Every structure is written in structure tokens, then in C-alpha cells.
Amino acid sequence: MSIQERNKKIVLDYYRTAFGGDPERAVAEHFGPHYIQHNPQAQDGPEAFIGFVRHLRAQYPELSLDIKRVIAEGDLVVTHSHLVLAPGAPGQALADFFRLAEGKVVEHWDVIQDVPVTSANPNGMF
After folding, report:
1. 17, 50, 102, 122: least surrounded by Cβ within 10 Å?
2. CB 97 within 8 A of CB 24
3. Is the overall model pTM greater than 0.70, yes or no?
4. pLDDT in tens, 95-111
């Protein structure tokens, strides 16, 4: 298995485990010795990530995350996902960029866009 394929598997397991309700396990299994966060609304470190996921799941217990695409190049893995906070809501389109070092997630960037109710084209966000 290539490093890129291995990194994709790591990120998919990490992301699904965390947002599936077990961020502590996701961090224990997949975070490196440090975690750098580039979202200006989030702090660095595993405790901040766990707190964010716990808060989000407490506020939206029926949230779902559907990962649509995964791309890897070098030490980066990019996911394109659909996050729905409540059933029936349009949700948000997420582009997450993860940097891995020695098989562990060590850095994260994201771009978040609300899924609009109407669109100027028939293509959809996903």
C-alpha cells in the first residue's frame, strides 16, 4: 500500500470515528504529538478538538457526516464532505485538509460553505 493510500485510510478512520461520537478514540489512535489547527474559530491541540466535537454532538445529536471524496498527495489528505446538523437541513459542504507525519494527523485546515436551498445550476454541491 502506498503512503498516500495509507494516509487516506488513517484520515477516513479518524474523521468517521470522531464525528461518529468517539473523538477521544480518534485522537488516541490518530493524532501525532501535536495538532495544529488553522480554523480561526478553533484552538490547537487534541483537547480542543475533542471539546469541539463533544459540543457539536451535544447541540446536534443527530448530525451526520458523509465523506464524498478523498484525495491524497504527499503528506496531505483532502476530504470533501457533507455535514448535516439536523435531519432534513441542507447542511454544509466541507473541504478539510489534513497533514500527516509518520502516519499521524498533525495539522488541519478547512473551508466550510452552507449548502444553499436553490442553485443557479443543476450540478449540486457534491
Report:
1. 122
2. no
3. yes
4. 999 999 999 999 999 99
